[in-house]
Predict the structure of ARA1 protein.
Amino acid sequence: MKIGSQSVSNLGMGTWYLGEGDAQQSTQEIAALRYGIEHGINVIDTAEMYGQGAAESLVGQAIIPYQREQLFLISKFYPWHATLNTMRTALKNSLQRLQTNYLDLYLLHWPGDTPIKETLQGLQTLQREGLIKQYGVSNFDTADLRMAHLTMPSATISTNEVLYNLDSRGIEYDLLPYHQDQGIATIGYSPFGSGDGQEIHLPDALAELARAKQITVHQLLLAWVLRNNDVLAIPKASSIDHVQANIAAQAVTWTPQELAVIDQAFPRPTRKTPLKVI
């Protein structure tokens, strides 16, 4: 898929909670990120919020062996860092932790009190300075995006990163169509649910479907998010085994009958629901 004019893998690696363990765990996480990079995943998603910079620092260590242009690095800034001066400071701190001199994509982590026009103007300035290639938002609902476009028509919001999984399909009603209409790439976080990934309880019919397809329940959840090749999924990359399973999920294909079974268990939205955030 594409973010702006940049081609990226439709499977990325998320980093929430990475870099917060002991040295052994950090070594495992670095190995997982490097395995992903070496097996075709070029997107790494992080944020200044994750471990108060610990995840960015871990990513910075992990990417040392690779050419920077091979990678598509995403980070996000707090809403209270959404003015130009605070944003620039936050960005430079993130770049220092990531050991790079630019980001491919910089996102406002969620809507805040700073007027969106001021934030978008700041992002445009950072883009002109070469510190970021593209910019976007996260956790914005359709009304938030419409207001941003109305307030700042010249802004190129390339991406919106939102919660998307089998149990959180609300964005399919109007947000995904709006993204497609406006050329906004969709990044879907938490494809397995929150926490340890056990938050989404699958009925027996879907557990049986996973067994029939010889995939794990987690692979079913991820493959479903990836089914149309129009969402960039960013499951957490905490071990090589997890990354291997995630990569294998990309090869899963679905018949209309199988998708109908899934839709019966987790129906498509038929009305507008507020955007879920975790």
